Amino acid sequence: MDGMMGFLSYYQLYELNHAALTPMRAAADMFDLFLKNPLNPMGQTPLARNWRAGLELFERTTRRYAKPSFDLPTTLVGGTRVPVVERIAWSKPFCDLIHFERQLERPRKDPKLLIVAPMSGHYATLLRGTVEAMMPRHDVYITDWADARMVPLSDGDFDLDDYIDYLIEMLHFLGDDVHVIAVCQPAVPVLAAVALMEAAGDRFAPRSMTLMGGPIDTRINPTAVNKLAEGKNLDWFRDNVVMKVPFPHPGVMRDVYPGFLQLSGFMSMNLDRHVTAHQDLFKHLVAGDGDSATKHRDFYDEYLAVMDLTAEFYLQTVETVFITHALPRGTMMHRGVPVDLTAVRNVALLTVEGENDDISGVGQTEAAQHLCVNIPEDMRAHYVQPKVGHYGVFNGSRFRAEIAPRISDFVLTHNRDRASAPKPAATAKPAAATAETAKPVAPAKEAGVETTKPEPVKPSVVRSPVVKAPVAKAPVAKSVSDPADDLKRIAGIGPKLEASLNAAGIHRYAQIARLTAKQATALDARLGLRGRLAREKWIEQAKALMQSAPAAGGEAAAASAG
C-alpha cells in the first residue's frame, strides 16, 4: 500500500505535521529570546529558567535536523598542528567523495585511506571521530552519500549493484595504493567489490580492507535488527516502509525508505535511554549546567539528522544481506557475475567487532575471515574490542585509544607494492562452503582477543580444492615502441573511457574484439559502464576496425593479443 494511511501516506502526514508545528516553533524561539534578554529582570528567576528549558526541549524534539558538517579544520601531523581543507574529489548524483586535504609544508607519503560510510539512515558525519583519528597518519577520503529525497528522478535509480559500481569507480579514481575501511552496512558491498576486482585481475584493488561491525553473516548471533528482517518477506517491506517523496523536495515522487522511519527504529531499541537523556537535558538547563547541555546537543544534533534511502537500494540490501544471506552462502551476484570470495588473495583483511554490539552481533564481521580462505595468514587479523557497543567500534575514547592504532598499524604494515609482496603458496587452498552446506561460524569466545589465525570452518562443511579460473586479464602490448590503437574510434568511447581502458590494460582493438561474454560482463561491471559495452557493440566495432586497419597494424594488434 506504499505506506498509505487513508488518502495520505505516512510521509505526507509527517511533512504536514512539521508544517503545522512551524508557527509553534517560531513562537517558542521568540519567547526564549525574550526570556534570555539581559535587560529582562525575569530572565534569571527560577520560573524563567524552567520556561526556557521547556521551550528549548519543545523546539529540539519537533525540529527537522539538517545535515551536520564535519568541522575538522586542523589535525596533528608529526607533532605539528596543520590546517585541513575539505574538498570534493569525485562526484556522482548519489555520492560525493570528500578529501580531507592536509596543508603540509613538506609532502608525506602517507597511505591513502578510503573510509566508506554507511548508507543506512545517518549522514557520513557520524564518522567524524573516525576521520579525525585517522588523519594524522593517513591521507583520508570518505564517501558522502546523498539524501535520496534531494536527488531528482531524472538522475535515475540507485541500488546495491550501483553502490558496488561506485566503490569500484572510486578505487580506480584514487589509484593502486589505497586502503579501505568499511563501517557497518558497507562491509558487504566493499567485500563484494574487492572480490569482483580480484577476480578480474584489477590492479586497482585496495591493498587492505578493514571491516568494522559489518553484517557479513547475520545468521551468527542474530540481533533484534536481524530477527526483524528474517521474520518478514520482501513484499512486507515494500508495502509498509517504501513511500514516495512528497512535494516540494527535489526528489518528489521517488520511491524511498524514509529516514524518519529508520530513526524511529533506532530510538525504539533504546527508548528509555533517550527519554532519560532528554529529562536530564531539562534538569541541566534549569541548573545552568552548560557543559552537560552542550554534550547533549552535540550528540543529538548528529543522531537525529537522518536521510532517505532509495527504495531499490534498501530492498535489495534487505534481501541480499538479511533474508537470503547471499554473500556467506556464495550465491551473491553483481550484474550477472558471481561474487566469489575465494578470489580474494592479495588484499589484506582486518575485521573489528564490539563486545556489546546490538546491531551487528559478535561473529558476524569475523565471518569474512572464514569466507576469504585464500588470503595468506600473515595478511589477516581479527580484533574484538571489550566493553563497547556498535557506535563504540568507530567512535569514542576506546576507539581512539585501542581500535584506531590497530587499524593504522595494519594499514602501514600492508602498505607495500604487490610486486614485492609474497606470493601465495602454489598448493590449492580449500574453497568456501557451498550454498547447501554453509553454516554460521561460531564467534570468538573471549572479547579483546586479537588473532591472525581464524578458526577453520567446521568439519561438517563440505570442502573441495579450489580450481582457479583463468583471470580475464587484458594483454598489453609486447613492446613499448608499438603504438596503441586509438580506442576513441569506437563509438561510445571518449578520452576518459579510453584512459580507463588503458589503465585496465586494454590498448588494442584486438583485445576488445576477443573478449568472451564473461570477460565483457566483468569489464563492463569493473568500469561501471552499465551495459554500454554490449549496447554500443564495442566488440563488433573493434572487429570492424581491425579488418579496415593496414596490414602491418593488424599484425601488431594480433601479436599484442596473442
From TrEMBL:
Segments of this protein annotated with the region Disordered: 418-461
User: Could you tell me where the Low complexity compositional bias lies?
Assistant: 421-446
Could you name the domain of life of the organism this protein comes from?
Answer: Bacteria
| InterPro entries referenced in this protein's UniProt entry, alphabetically | AB_hydrolase_fold, PHA/PHB_synthase, PHB_depo_C, PHB_depoly_PhaZ
Residue ranges occupied by any PHB de-polymerase C-terminal domain in the UniProt entry: 213-413
**Annotated protein name in UniProt:** Polyhydroxyalkanoate depolymerase
Q: Which organism is it from?
A: Kaistia nematophila
* Upper taxonomic lineage: Bacteria, Pseudomonadati, Pseudomonadota, Alphaproteobacteria, Hyphomicrobiales
